[in-house]
Specification:
mainly alpha; two-stranded antiparallel sheet; 64% helix; elongated
Length: 192
């Protein structure tokens, strides 16, 4: 938290705090001191899964101590196969969790119904790189924006206006013209 105090001191001038500059500096420095929620959730889920696997393996080892040598060899082979399958399933689940987190993060606030948009993403075409980035996700989202634009919120400044639209004759700042037109229509126009 010392870094925040340093930023506050930096943005304090003549007893006044420049809030905009402070927020800009905090947004710039924050990633150095914190982990994004999606990444934290992914790591926490992986940790929970690993702890579960360790507990299961400990129970398996306790059972192995009670078995004779021939049965022990058979059980070791069986357990090795189970552990290999469990590892594959774990890696598959972890990849699915990371993909789901990346998809939710990429469409957050951009879609009317994020669950529907997420279900339209073809997960088998996505590639999870070693640094945790999802390759192919942006392309799929852009393609969905083009083919199924009704699922996405309009970006500011690009709103489509349906129905009747007022064109021209916008007399902003000329309220006297309206008053003069009404007075003339009723014959009450005052002449100076």
């Amino acid at each position: 938290m010392d870094w925040i105090l340093e930023l506050v001191k930096k943005n304090m001038k003549d007893g006044e705090l420049d809030q905009e500059a402070l927020v800009k500096d905090i947004n710039k420095e924050f990633p150095k001191y914190a982990v994004p929620k999606a990444q934290y959730n992914s790591i926490a889920e992986a940790k929970r899964k690993l702890e579960e696997d360790v507990k299961i393996r400990d129970e398996q080892l306790e059972k192995l101590k009670e078995v004779d040598v021939d049965k022990l060899k058979e059980q070791i082979e069986a357990l090795q196969e189970e552990n290999r399958i469990a590892k594959e399933n774990y890696e598959k689940e972890l990849k699915e969790i990371q993909l789901n987190s990346a998809i939710k993060l990429a469409i957050a606030g951009k879609a009317h119904d994020e669950d529907i948009v997420a279900s339209l993403i073809k997960r088998d075409e996505l590639v999870l790189s070693e640094d945790g980035k999802v390759i192919g996700l942006d392309e799929q989202i852009e393609a969905l924006k083009e083919t199924k634009s009704f699922l996405f919120k309009q970006e500011e400044g690009k709103e489509e206006q349906l129905g009747f639209q007022k064109i021209g004759n916008d007399q902003k700042g000329n309220s006297n013209a309206t008053e003069d037109a009404i007075a003339a229509a009723f014959g009450n126009l005052k002449k100076d």
